Amino acid sequence: MIKTVLHPVSDLTKAKEVYAALLGLPPENDTPYYVGFEAGGQHIGLVPNGGPQGMTAPVTYWHVPDIEARLAAVTAAGATVHEAAHDVGGGRMVATFTDPDGNVLGLIQD
């Protein structure tokens, strides 16, 4: 299930204002390196300048119970690992992969 979408932004302050107006609520996470909103069961994140992962377009993240197993399954089916599974804090694991057309997709395991 897709529950998280991250958007690279060039101006975090301006983007935060636009997304707050769009969603009708303030961010729950508001730091210089990440701003996150929770709206209707979805997490919308703003990543300044694409962050260390170099995002150039929004990335959708599927929440899965076993990130390593799912990453193995999609690579066996023809995907390519873009960013290996790693802990981003609090036990949350993330990974990204590209589909055969080069689209970057993400996985999250809590």
From TrEMBL:
Annotated signal peptide:
none
> What residues does the VOC domain cover?
1-110
* Record-linked InterPro entries: Anthracycline_SecMetBiosynth, Glyas_Bleomycin-R_OHBP_Dase, Glyas_Fos-R_dOase_dom, VOC_core
Source domain of life is: Bacteria
Note the PANTHER family from the entry.
GLYOXALASE-RELATED
Name this protein carries in UniProt: VOC family protein
